[in-house]
Amino acid sequence: MARNDLRPIIKLRSTAGTGYTYVTRKSRRNDPDRLVLRKYDPTARTHVLFREER
Question: How far apart are CA 30 and CA 46, in angstroms?
Fold first, then answer.
């Protein structure tokens, strides 16, 4: 089960408060902390920060 241990599925939730989420995988080796990415939120119609949700 090395696939699930090394690259788990995570949810990225919008910080704009719209409740929009992205689902992706991340590398625990390269990003051991919570991931923060700037992505497009179609509900807010702008780019906002998305934080990893566990």
Answer: 28
Determine the topology of domain 2-53 in CATH: Rubrerythrin, domain 2 (2.20.28)
SS3 41: strand
pTM score, two decimals? 0.85
CA–CA gap between residue 17 and residue 49 (Å, rounded): 11
**How far is it, in rounded angstroms, from Cα 35 to Cα 29?**
12
Higher pLDDT, 2 or 40: 40
**Extents of the domains making up the chain:** 2-53
Phi then psi for 46, rounded to 5 degrees?
-155, 170
